[in-house]
Amino acid sequence: MMLLDDFKHSILLTTRFSDGDVMGHVNNARYATYLEEARIQYARDVFGWNGEPDEIGMILVKTVIDYLMPLRVGNTIKVHTRCSRIGRKSFDLNYIVMIEGKGALVSTATTTMVAYDYQREASVLVSDEWKKSVLAYEKIKPEV
Predict the structure, then answer these.
(1) Sign of the alpha-carbon torsion through 28, 31, 32, 33
(2) Please, what are the domains in the chain?
(3) Are 65 and 30 in contact (CB under 8 A)?
């Protein structure tokens, strides 16, 4: 179970007209884009990534999203992000998406990321620097 108190990192986003369908609901595929935005900002803020893909190689390998209520075009949402597990080559990020100002829980999600060398096109070990950054920021223990 995800508790909001465990999430220190968050970003605000506003759903766009192009995110919606003819009924004004946000298309389910757009949620993955919101998670991506949150993940990129988390990497910048926690890992110190400056946007260069070679500096922090990671690749998405799994996404699980639970849709709890619909979003509408024009909603301002807060996407909370935390690292819940960090292993030798991979780590999990959890997300809570809420409508800002209403406290309405919209969705929860988990992504699994793998440390990745784009030059060699191969997975690599999670760097000690990443682990130190995450462990200093989050309340988790590294896998052995």
Answers:
(1) positive
(2) 4-137 (3.10.129.10)
(3) no
The 3-class SS string of the chain reads: CCCHHHCCEEEEEECCHHHECCCCEECHHHHHHHHHHHHHHHHHHHHCCCCCCCCCCEEEEEEEEEECCCCECCCEEEEEEEEEEECCCEEEEEEEEEECCCCEEEEEEEEEEEEEECCCCEECCCCHHHHHHHHHHCCCCCCC
- Look at residue 38 in the predicted model and tell me its pLDDT: 98
- pTM for the whole thing? 0.92
Q: What is the pLDDT of residue 139?
A: 80
Predicted confidence band of residue 56 (pLDDT cuts 50, 70, 90):
low
pLDDT at position 114 is 95
CB 126 within 8 A of CB 90: yes
Which of these ranges, 50-54, 102-106, 112-116, has the smallest mean pLDDT? Answer: 50-54
